[in-house]
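## tool: complex_structure
## caller: assistant
## args:
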Amino acid sequence: MQIACLVVDRAVDRRGVGNPRAWSLTWLFVSPTLLFAAFVLVPLVALGIRGWQDGEVAGRLTSPFALQALRLSVVTSTLSLALALVLGVPAAYLLARVRFPGHRLLTILVELPMVLPPTVAGVALLVAFGRRGIIGSALSDVGLELAFTTTAVVLAQLFVAAPFLVRSLQAGFEAIDPTYEDVSRTLGVSEWRTFWRVTLPLARPALLSGAVLCWTRALSELGATLIFAGNFEGRTQTMPLAIITAFESSAGLSGSIALSLVLLAVASMLLVLVRFAHLRPRGDL
Amino acid sequence: MRMSTRWWRAAVAAFGLAAVLVAACGGATMPAAPTTTTASTPLTGTISVFAASSLTEVFKTIAADFQRANPGVTVEFNFAASSALATQIDQAAPADVFASADATNMTRLADKSQIDGTPVTFAKNLPVIVIPADNKAAIATPKDLSKAGVKLVLAGPDVPIGNYARQIIDRLAATPEYGAAYRDATLKNLVSNEQNVRAVLTKIELGEADAGIVYQTDALVAREKVKTVAIPEAANVIAVYPIAVVKTAKNKVAAAAFIKFVTGAPGQAALKAAGFDAAS
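## result:
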């Protein structure tokens, strides 16, 4: 309601007290916003309420089944993020700073997995890296098999999540005035050091938000993993797979509520952490 | 201003494209207009049938025949693992008929008074081992499932075929010929617990795994891509398929008529043709 008052105050300021048009305009924005907030909040609160009421949920929160899936989820999504950073930061910088033939095509290509249903990604990965895949069959001949391994989980996550990092970071790099970098270079600082000491710190907000999006997307990956990596406890069964497995088992809803609550807590914690890190005053920059 | 016009144009184009796609796909789902009436009191409306994955093809065939006989009725399907369907019905999913691939999941609902009347067994099925046509892992008998390095795929333990498969492995391990070590070695080869029987079949069709356990009817559906290895009769379990009207069904009359059709001559003929065994 505080927000509503704030918006109303502004409208009143601009248009004069008691202007009926200002009021209607305000509610035109406030009502949908409140509705939207409620729409997002209600299911999450319902999850909490049902978890509280259902006696089985508390016990399942810390079951070995849940903890094992959580551990695998954290490990694989962190690995995916690390790989995305290694490959994505240079890619984003290149796309932001250098214009080359095929630049637009490459930009679209990088973003493609974002609009692709993850199940499509899973099938695509399977026909590429599966045992009989275009590349997978050659790997299989030398004894390297990806399907049903934790590596496959990471690959699936990387495929669907990395574009979120690249996209955010590319926009971040593009927003930086090249003058800063030019000044740094004219002062005799090497290209490499300039990137690390000037460009990257300036792009920090974009890097941070891109990394969070990438990490959470990897954490929530289901479709591609299910198809490409299979579903096995401790090896490929991440939290989202454990949730769907619990839902379809005799544990039914109680099991999936418990796991969902765990994942919800982890994801929210991360989001809050990043928001706070974001707001902290940063001295020199 | 020019920018905003462009945005509008893009938005209109996007919605236009969506509308075209809907129109293009819409034709297939339009219910056929009723033409003739056969029964004295013609059945009408829609029934939602929640059926085990293994019934996918045969139930579509049966439903087509049923709709031809009752032009006023539209049959809609939800195919998934019986365990998943039971959870959905338990959470008040709008189902009229539930056809399970085992008694366990039917009982799970019946115990909660979510089933109308007594479930009727309408078919039986036999689990088999499926292997990719090229059989690179050289699997010839169930014993080979325990060989080191074999990639075995089963459905999850609550999915009927996953449950049956584990029973079979236990029964084999109980024979002196296989021994208790067989169970551990075989389960050690398990690489994935799939969501339903068809997901297991797909993994074998693709050659991603070396062996899986599905129903003989599934192996028949994919006979060009997979081969089967029989399970010794003494160790095998027989899958029993019960069907029932769901308590909260909106169209109980048509639901009951569909079940009668499945258990009657037309349904039984289609099931037999698909490789299912008769209920009794």
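## assistant note: Confidence is low (pLDDT under 50) at residues 1-8 of chain A. The CA atoms of residues 8 and 113 of chain A lie 41 Å apart. Handing back to user.
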